[in-house]
Amino acid sequence: MPSPRYRREMPQRYRLEAGKCKGCGKIFFPPRLICNKCGSEDFEQVVLPENGKIVTFTIIRVAPAQFEAEVPYAIAIVELENGVRITTQVVDCDTEKLEIGNEVKLVFRKVQEEGKTGIILYGYKAVLA
Amino acid sequence: MRDVYLIGCGMTKFGEIWESSFRDLFVEAGLKAIKDAGVDHLDSMYVGTMTSGLFVGQEHVGALMADYLGMAPIPAVRVESACCSGGLAVRMGFLDIASGNSDIVLAGGVEKMNDGADVTFALSTAADQEYECYHGVTFPGLYAMIARAHMDRYGTTRDQLAQVAVKNHFNGSMNPNAQFPRKVTLEQVKNAVLVADPLTVLDSSPVSDGGACVILASEEVAKKLQKPMIKIIGSGVATDSLALDQREDITALNAVKVSAERAFKMAGLKPTDIDLAEVHDCFTIAEICILEELGFAERGKGGLFTEQGHTALTGKIPINTSGGLKSKGHPVGATGAAQIVEIYEQLTGKSGERQIKNAKIGLSQNMGGSGASSVTHIFSLM
Question: Could you tell me whether strands B44-48 and B76-79 are parallel, antiparallel, or unpaired per DSSP bridges?
């Protein structure tokens, strides 16, 4: 992944920065330039809560090349306390025992490596709360 | 808008087609369609391919295919909307003729997926690259999350998912162009290798090479050529968020619903008027959700509807008589056009053992990604 592209997403991946529409209050993660609910282009920066619960999940057993060494791993859509949903891995758990509704907390982790000589890519992952 | 007619079609066999290149696959399907229609020229053409750049390192596909079909310098446009590139190419051809710009158009699609690319990665580019793929999401993974949410909310069962595969493989066993023209059992589907829980490899469409093309024409041309009058009476396209997590209801495919509503409105028809449909069963759960979005089954009852046999060849609304993506194969850019090939053959009585008797009105529904784009067409034998 080219470094400029990675750097641009750091506020979201490192600090969970989202955009709250000043027109209608809808929160977007990642932030957008225009609200798809009210059409406002006026946003304020907010930080997402770290706690939420699993809305749905799967266990990936066939992965793209950069994740092959990690299979099987769990991926979930997590609904955070403010209603925003994000897609993330769920780690440090027995994936076979995961259930919809499990309470989780977002933590900061390594997500990928950019080949043998590239940068290490970080971001959020979920652990059971 | 002018009326638009389907006057011919052609497709390659789907599968691991080692002897044919990317361009060969499209040209073979295109030449078959041109000969089937009996036209001596084209006014323009539309080529659907999802990601030929990643699969075979080839872009600039419109001009390439026009040249190799012997049709340059006609206008040729490449159309991309992930797995609904082929269906959208037909939509663009429809608009071209409806607008009065062209009288004869070739529209189709092609994909060459078995030439050594990282297929899981290439397909995942149809999802949100920064906020889904970055975390290791795959396409089976996205549909698996839809499946688990559907099972949790509506009580859809593991057996009901498997029944989609069993039914489509049964249909595909009678289709000589199918990649896997053989029957499978419920137990085989359920006990196959897991790809992304709860979906197994037999809940998933295969990795395929293939091409499919149709010829569209104005009424005047169709009448002059004395072809069966298959009219496109409905055409609708719609979009949704690429990322599944951005949707209010993870079990709903709103783009499918809206694309179908637009097509039904244009045709002045309702779901019960349809005699058969080809729908985008990239995974078994997808067919179940689509049955609900198209209005064939009630919300949450797509699995039960399948279990009750309503979507079988002998059911009230036969779905995926060709074998669907599941058995016929899913060369992603070609799929939408291949669905229309099946509808054309059914409406003109050429479907052999899997022929639906007295089929007059057929529907095709093709979607991209985890449902972020969808195109629905309705065809009528006039």
Answer: parallel
